[in-house]
Request: fold
Amino acid sequence: MKAVSFLSDKWAWLRSAAPDAFVLRASVGRFGEDDLPARPDRHLIRTAITELRQAVGPLGEPVAARVTRWDRGLPQYAVGHHDRVRDIREAAAKLPGLGLCGAAYEGVGVAACVATGRTAARQALAEAEAA
Reply:
């Protein structure tokens, strides 16, 4: 399990549409699991439910489930990723005007990408003001 979002906690309209249920999104797949997109939907759903129960406890059975495959849609970080990113950032710091941001660095989620974008923008502004 890479990520789980309880969407009905994020968006009230989902909670009000089904007050006795919840909606969640689970993202499965780990680095090196290249065969995962070829597995049947039922296998992916069962794997997600099993791992969710291990993480949060009893959840009941899903009323409905849908699998959406994003084969190669997001980076898969290998062991040592954080060290490589540190080294890249140290090298980039020596090149004025170069900012690094996006899913390749600190995380693939929207919040992580926005955070790296803001940091790169602040860096660019600071460099422009100093020039």
Remarks:
- DSSP finds five helices and two strands in the chain.
- Residues 1 and 29 are 6 Å apart (CA to CA).
- The chain has a mean pLDDT of 88.
